[in-house]
Amino acid sequence: MENYIIETSNTVEEWNSKLARILIPNNVILSLYMIAGLVGNSAVIFIYGFKMKGNKIKGNKEERYFIPFLATADLCATLVCASFGIAQNIMQATFDNEPLCKTWWFFAGFTTLISVFFLVVIAVHRYLKDCKPLGKQMTLRWKWFALGLCLVIAFPLAGPMTHFYGSESFLNEEMKIYGRRCGRLSTTNKTSSLIFGGTLVLTAITIIIVLICLYSKVGYTIFVHFKYTKVVGNHNKTEHSRGGVSSGDDPYSKSEMSSFETLETPTAGMSSVYFTQTTTQQTETPVNIEVREKHVPKQSSRKRRRNKRIVHKFTLMFMLITVIFLICYIPKVIIMLLEASNTKFWEGFSEAGRSAVSFVYRIYILNNVTNPFIYAFLDKKFSEQIKKLIKSCTCK
Questions:
Q1: Which is it for the CA torsion 368, 309, 211, 127, positive or negative?
Q2: Among the listed residues 132, 151, 148, the one whose alpha carbon sits nearest the alpha carbon of residue 140
């Protein structure tokens, strides 16, 4: 032991500078993450939270309700995680501030978990709207409760990070010196470390499975909807060719239209089958009318189809966000599992290898950066407001 230099010295500083130079490309990427996340998510919060608030802009407010909350979580996660990654890269062997290290780990875990849990709440919301449109939906009170529950669950999951992560010394056998880095502590009990790591991995896997299951059902429902919409379109063309077009917005008779409209909502259950069976009847019993009034909103068929298209469009948007989340987080989950089983995981790589693994490990931040660009691409109202905002800024 006496042959090694324990104190932070010029030799350690030189070693740290060498490690930091190798990680400069990572720092450039993390800086881009931070800038894009700051600008993009701030624009989302401003536009969805203020410009589209209330009735200032016509549109489906219900579909955009969770977007400002998700953007806030993404903004915090991007700033905390990206800045933390840069600090770790710069102080690869000289991160000796224990309180700062533990605090950064906690907030990195806390903000990331909140963002992920918000995606689960959104998935449940989309499932209810698309697959159970006639059932109970999330009221404003339940939405606030769900968001609050995300904070409550994220806190105890992130809290133990202050125990298992911190500033720890590690050896450079070639130079025979010790440095200090901010990472998982090898001094903690291995069993408890595995339990904690396993809990985080199990939570991540559970979330991934839940998201896949919910959006699989949603995707199937949308597929069925578009399938029957195509049937309605073909029927419309047939009626036009025959000259049998009824007056008003609907090209079908009332009995025919009720059948197709109900088919657009496959989750209507028995009422869907009941309407289909009565399409050939010329008269309606009071029971038929009662069921129709209960399950079909009193709107024009064109407006109902337009609203359903809006619902499906936003659902597809959130599905794309979830797919990007899965792509970005699966590598992190795998590395977390390996890190939990081997406390010297990072020491087993060469300097170039550590740089590559660090990039893969932090690619999850991209999930918090890309969402504003998805909104801009798929939400016409948002893109219009972005153009107006840019125009007003350039004119000043």
A1: positive
A2: 148
- pLDDT per residue as tens digits for the range 339-395: 767 767 777 777 778 788 888 889 989 988 988 888 776 777 877 888 887 777 776
| CATH (residue range 10-223+304-395) | 1.20.1070.10
Give one DSSP letter per residue of 250-292, joined into a string: -SS-HHHHHHHHHHTSGGGTHHHHHHHHTTT-SS--HHHHHHH
Least reliable range by pLDDT among 2-11, 157-166, 191-200, 223-232:
2-11
Residues of the chain with CATH 1.20.1070.10: 10-223+304-395
Alpha-carbon distance of 346 to 186, in angstroms, equals: 12
Q: Which two tokens stand for residue 379?
A: 């939400």
Helix (H) or strand (E) holding 63: none
Most confident by average pLDDT, 13-17, 315-319, 338-342:
13-17
> CB neighbours (10 Å) of residue 283?
7
Region 17-30 average pLDDT = 91
Q: What band does 335 get if pLDDT is binned at 50, 70 and 90?
A: confident
CA distance 223 to 241: 27
- Helix (H) / strand (E) element for 224: namely helix 190-242
Question: For 211-225, 250-264, 289-303, which range has the lowest pLDDT when averaged over its residues?
Answer: 250-264
At CB < 8 A and 24+ separation, what contacts does 319-325 make? 319/126, 319/215, 319/218, 319/219, 320/374, 320/378, 321/119, 321/370, 321/371, 321/374, 322/119, 322/123, 322/211, 322/215, 324/366, 324/367, 324/370, 324/374, 325/116, 325/119, 325/211, 325/367
The amino acid at 83: S
| Model pLDDT, residue 274 | 32
Yes or no: say if 53 and 347 are a contact pair by the CB < 8 Å rule. no
Q: Which residues contact 127 (CB under 8 A, 6 or more apart)?
A: 214, 215, 217, 218
C-alpha dist (Å) from residue 7 to 12, 90, 179, 185, 301: 8, 19, 8, 19, 77
DSSP-based three-state secondary structure for 136: coil
Could you read off the pLDDT of 57-70 as tens digits, one per residue?
Answer: 444 567 788 889 99
Question: HSE of 112 in the Cβ direction (CA atoms, 13 Å)?
Answer: 28
